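Entry for the shared binder. Reason: the reviewer on the internal report wants the predicted structure included alongside the sequence.
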Amino acid sequence: MAWAMGLLLLLLLPAVGASRPGTVVRLNKEVLSYVAEAGKAPLQQALQVTVPNFLDRSGEALQPTRIQILNVHMPHLHLKFIAGFGIHLLAAANFTFKIFRVPEPLRLMLPVKLLVDAPVDQGSIGTPVVSISDCFSFFDEAIVLDHNRTASKLLVPLQKHIQAVLQNKLCLRISNVVQDLNVHLGTLIGLSPVGPESQVRYSMINAPTITKDYISLDFNAVLFLLGRPIVLPEVNTSFVLPHPVGASAAMVTVGLSQDLFDSAILLLQKAGVLNMDVTGELESNDNMLNTSMLGQLIPEVAHQFPEPRPLVLKVRLGATPTVTLRTGNATLQLRPFVEVLAPASNSAFQSLFSLNVVVNLSLQLFVAEVRLRGTTSVLGNVQITVASSNVGLIDLEKVQTLVDTVFERPLLDHLNALLGMGIALPHVVSLHYISPEIFVYEGYIVVSSELLYQR
């Protein structure tokens, strides 16, 4: 049962709330039917308690009689949100018992109704915590499943014995399952890798918001580079996820604010992984990155290098890239400084010229393996201006061809490899997002998804 309620919280994706950066994870009421169905089997297993021997007083001497639960079948399990509180569970279960009487055993079925109220709150370590505030079990009359003439004499005392045991044990077993669940939810605050030297950690920042239609959880995401947190400038604003938003019938709605993207891009810049070197090859017929091809565009290059030599483009990101989220589209702007180098006679490299470049990219986002990933494509022309030159006057129209040919594709390949690794979303073991859809809004994105929990 607690597993069933806890599964509502297992889909915790990235989260923002009052602090930065963050994400809002909203579990909609559409998830309740799935959780109730998926939770039946583990709940039935949890309720297989041990029943002590029954002292049969029907004979001349007390006779200890062994009782065993053969099966717990749950034909009905219903969950609903309680506004401002948590989750209410109503379950109907049929307990089948075997009474090991001599000379013939007896089988009974005892219908039981379970009512459980479970508040959801913020834990001291920054994870969701489920507890049990009320738990009640109600019993109907036991049903004899065998034709046994002596059963009626034992039925009343036998049922009283079983009810007394179950009354104490069922809620205790449910409470134990909830404690196991909370240990499982504690894995949410662990560090998840972003890159070889970077991680992300999520933690709850306030108590959940609970309505009759959803439960909403606010998290703070902290990205670390070499153990040091990435800190954005202070802004006195918080992210509020509208309702409704995203796909109307999704089980989970995850809102990811602009801050999370700004923090991730800042991490990539500080890590230096956005920088790259593009090296030419003399033997390649389609590679223009050599002094021979460049000399056809800039005469001074041909004069300084009569023999063909490979060139190197040294791409460095000085300015922080900018992610812009507008309704229907996401863009990424890079302003790299590109230096064109050629090997000198002493094996050192000399700078031929350098360019200030502006690249606007379309950013496509998707979710795979509990990670938010992306790919890019160039929007319009790459804008270039000359920063410095050691080869005289440069015709930018001619150099534009070189940039389009030897710069764009390596840049896209490099960026897409980085963005394809993605950033881990808050998650616990065994949770999967099924058929996620991504919606881009002004200043945030939304992931709408179905869920699959597999042990």
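Summary line for the report: The radius of gyration is 33 Å.
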